[in-house]
Amino acid sequence: MNEQILINVTPFETRVAIVEQGTVQEIQLERSNQRGNVGNIYLGKVSRVLPGMQSAFIDIGLERAAFIHLADLRENRVSRQNDNVQVQIEKVLFEGQTLLVQVIKDAVGTKGARVSNQISIAGRSLVYLPHEPHIGISQKIDSEEEREKLKQRVQNLMSPDEKGGYIIRTQAGWSTDEELKNDQEYLSLRWQKIIDGMKRHGAPAMLYEDLTLAQRVLRDFANENTLSIEIDSRTVTQSLKQWAEIYTPAVADKINHYTGPRALFDLANVEEEIQAALSRRVELKSGGYLIFDHNEALTSIDVNTGGYVGYRNFNDTIFKTNLEASLAIARQLRLRNTGGIIIIDFIDMDNAEHQEAVLDELTKALARDRTHTTVNGFSSLGLVEMTRKRTRDSLHHLLCEPCPTCQTRGNILTARTVCYNIMREILREAKQFNPKEFRLIVSPHVIDLLLDEESAFLAMLDEFIGKPISLEVDNNYSQEMYDIILI
Length: 487
Description:
Elements: E1 3-10, E2 13-20, E3 23-31, E4 41-50, E5 55-59, E6 66-69, H1 74-82, E7 98-105, E8 114-116, E9 121-122, E10 126-129, E11 135-137, H2 144-157, E12 165-168, H3 177-200, E13 205-208, H4 213-221, E14 226-231, H5 234-247, E15 255-257, H6 270-277, E16 281-283, E17 289-294, E18 298-304, H7 314-336, E19 340-345, H8 352-366, E20 373-378, E21 384-388, H9 395-399, H10 415-432, E22 438-442, H11 444-451, H12 455-465, E23 469-473, E24 482-486
Parallel strand pairs: 1-14, 11-12, 14-15, 18-19, 22-23
Antiparallel strand pairs: 1-2, 2-3, 4-5, 4-7, 4-13, 5-6, 7-8, 9-10, 10-12, 16-17, 17-18, 19-21, 20-21, 22-24
Helix pairs in contact: 4-5, 7-8, 10-11
């Protein structure tokens, strides 16, 4: 499939769009002052051990302490493999202990970063595991013959005294022995620098920082299907070409400096796709639509037929809409980088074959996702439950912030409700204090209601408390904001 990679570079932000057949399939974003920490390796210090949760907090020098669970400890994994016995975290970690850890999930909301002491360093074709003396293979390489062949090739390139092991990435299938050897040497050098850093620095300290977004794109996304990599910065183009010639020579010739008259992201309407990915509602070509609702626990997606009436048979109309929605959902999850638990409410289908076809279409569309996904079948309530691995922040979390008006509720109090809250509060304060006058400062919508439909109740309140109530409008106030001043 023809693929083009567009890299838009500014001093403050780098944005990447993966375009297939003229359609944006994935968006990556990294800000200079907000770079994620996934992949970074730190020398940390255990600040607190929680036996009841079988976890611990690790100070790695970030704003919030990192979090490590027993399942992410190398010692527990080794114990379960050898003795099938789960160790206790309090017997492995203690307060004040220094520990080499790697961030596996960025901090999200109030939660600190999640870390592991099972270190891995990724190259283009291989992932080095300094503490794991075995060779694993990407699950995307499903041919048993190919898996054995790749495993043997990597073993032959390893020196007899070499420590650690490797995970063979999908890219290794197109790599020569020389490229695999170069990858091994690069990873060995990176690990040695980390070892040297442990000797020089005290905890907490960062010993290894993951590649920039542009470099990760060349390492992870560019492949034989990539037609070109267009970059709108001459400096970044030159530096990436030099980097690619060393680490990803197969794609070095595909890197071009874009000098066209139009903005780079206008070529495939990327800006419009970003805005659409931030929207709650996503339109389908048939006239149906999707509704995305995000919260900290999960993401829910509701499928609706909308104005689609393409078939006389109602069941066929529903089936067609759900099939189209399956493709759109898979693409939107990539664009939005949505992770965690995802609940999909397809339009109810009575036909079991239709349900199976929709599920197959969704699974097939998700197979193109570079992020690991797991899909369960339809539940008894007709919902599809799935998970998508969450590593970095979603596009929504990177570009948006909580609404100051509704405080993330997704709705605000009506003007009438605010009017009644104000009158109740005046009544309470009139019982406690004895001012000469109550002055209200409110928003335009609320003052209109107080002077019109609610004026009779306001007059009754004025008479009941025996104090004048004056009104003042502030155009900068949101609908829920008001002040009651006692004069």
